[in-house]
Structure to design on (108 residues):
């Protein structure tokens, strides 16, 4: 007796494509939502830190860097008058709300 495959090669290929598309459909939206949320949080946090620690900065910019100064994560940069850009703060892989000191900021 000869064993025949239960499904034809064409049907197996169609099933594989459907499974891959289903997995992408489940995973990709989560990645997009996570990235968008992290980016928005990093932007707001950077703006808060810039307002407190660099009030004279012209602009802020947030970037995700794999090889940043403190390892992979979101970094907050400020652009000073004249175009010089400097790292204000590393925000980490998962940026959170800004934690600013209460009271007077001074050069002690």
């Amino acid at each position: 007796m000869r064993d025949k495959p239960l499904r034809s090669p064409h049907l197996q290929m169609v099933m594989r494509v459907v499974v891959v598309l289903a997995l992408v459909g489940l995973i990709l939206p989560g990645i997009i939502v996570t990235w968008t949320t992290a980016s928005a949080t990093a932007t707001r946090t950077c703006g808060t830190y810039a307002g407190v620690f660099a009030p004279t900065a012209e602009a802020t910019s947030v970037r995700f860097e794999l090889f940043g100064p403190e390892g992979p994560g979101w970094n907050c940069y400020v652009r000073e008058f004249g175009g010089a850009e400097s790292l204000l703060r590393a925000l980490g892989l998962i940026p959170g709300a800004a934690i600013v000191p209460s009271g007077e900021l001074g050069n002690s």
Q: What stands out?
A: The two ends are 91 Å apart (CA to CA). DSSP finds one helix and three strands in the chain. The chain has one domain: 9-92.
